[in-house]
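I keep forgetting this: the sequence line spells out the residues, with the fold written below as integer tokens. I include a record here:
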Amino acid sequence: MRETTIGRAKLQLVVGDITAQDTEAVVNAANERLAPGGGVAGAIHRAAGPDLWQECSLLGGCATGQAKITRGYNLPNQYVIHTVGPVYSGSEKDPVLLRSCYVSCLQAADARGIRSVSFPALSTGIFGYPVEEAARVAIRAFRDYLSGNTGIGLVRMVLYDRAAYDAHVRALEEGEREGGPSAG
């Protein structure tokens, strides 16, 4: 695990199972219908049980870069924050939309008074976003948001494997060299 302090919050990077985190909320890498699918979305829906899809089906979907909140049902988390990442195209819009996912989730958490959130590496699975680029976008979004006025005390990036973890550690260290948060 790698941990750093940003503002009053902790940012943790870990390799693990997104469905087994002890944070108040977990972020779902959703599709626009918020339907069960593969990857993170499939794992979260399986772990939460059928009531999650029942609630999601009433929300009218979710646009790319936005976020919606549901209950966590059978997950260890009180809430699931669903966000739709961009399908990677190499365009200038990709990092803008990806950043919007992270910021929208953090704003939704703050609006509900949620103090701890676990994120997967959004858009890096079937949506094809290169992990190194996505890691830089995520770390910058966390650094900028957590440096401001927020009630969030813990953001945990739960990475699928060691390669994704290493990419996020490199992005964090790059940010620290640029005058960002110091290692904790």
Q: What stands out?
A: The chain has five helices and seven strands. Helices lie at 39-48, 50-56, 93-112, 131-146, 162-177. The two ends are 11 Å apart (CA to CA). The chain has a mean pLDDT of 95.
